[in-house]
């Protein structure tokens, strides 16, 4: 007897599942390969960005140095008067002619060609203002300029983060409103006025800090002396940069704290300090980094003024003294170096922007 199996109609009429059609799911190794390929591509684009900037940096520096010599030729001052100094009015005409013959190189274009040729060989010439080789003057003064610029900008960045966070987290507090108003007021103060104000309060009024120089008169060059004397120059550089850093960071933080990413982080239960430190602050720093590159020439120029007012022996002070004395070799060399520093800082800011923000296309910078 053959047993007949009765099938359930509901089961017998159910169609068989279809096989999925399409490409297979990517494996973790494949996704990691795509990430590496993207990073390599962005790295190549950053390399193209660096090469493109360096390609026009050299011609630009040549044009700037040429302009320095051309503008110096239009100045009413002359190198002979700067060389003689206070002895100029008592110098006989024959001696003055000898000095002019010693310092003269013909026209300003001939002077520039002579300076450019010697600079390409590693010798930027002789300083008539300091009576020393220009290379030695730059080597002796460059570290002091880098010191106050680096410490000043770093101090400004730290203080700006503190102020921006405090104001962004308590936007309606009277203290926050006062801080924002004070920052807007400080933005109108030039560097020389900030330097004079700090000197008047902390050096002359309170007597807490020295008014200028690298050491006390007759004192040895020690770390303690330098640390004490660099407080005012560093503070002047920092105070000049804090307002724009704080205000831009404050606006960016407000936008981030009210944005959807932060709201989603709050929904996930993250603490407010974690949200600010890991989500809001890194995203808010991106526009500040982008702006910092464009403002670096202003930072360099402000540091030069601070050095002159507070008698800090850096390149900025040498630049002003060389301009007054018509010391063209030192003037052109320092001018080119400060311009190169500004261009290099702008390039580093753009590279940092590409590293921080994956949406930034290096080809558009």
Automatic annotation (TrEMBL):
> What keywords tag this UniProt record?
Cell membrane, Membrane, Transmembrane, Transmembrane helix, Transport
Domain of life the protein comes from: Bacteria
PROSITE patterns of this UniProt entry?
ABC_TM1
ABC transmembrane type-1 domain residues: 142-349
> Looking at the Swiss-Prot or TrEMBL record, what is one Pfam family this protein matches?
BPD_transp_1
Q: Where is this region: Disordered?
A: 13-36
User: What does the UniProt entry say about where the protein is found?
Assistant: Cell membrane
Q: What is its main location?
A: membrane
Q: How does it sit in the membrane?
A: Multi-pass membrane protein
Cellular component GO terms, alphabetically?
plasma membrane
Q: Hey, which family's this protein in? A: Belongs to the binding-protein-dependent transport system permease family.
The name this protein carries in UniProt is Peptide/nickel transport system permease protein
To which species is this protein native? Citricoccus muralis
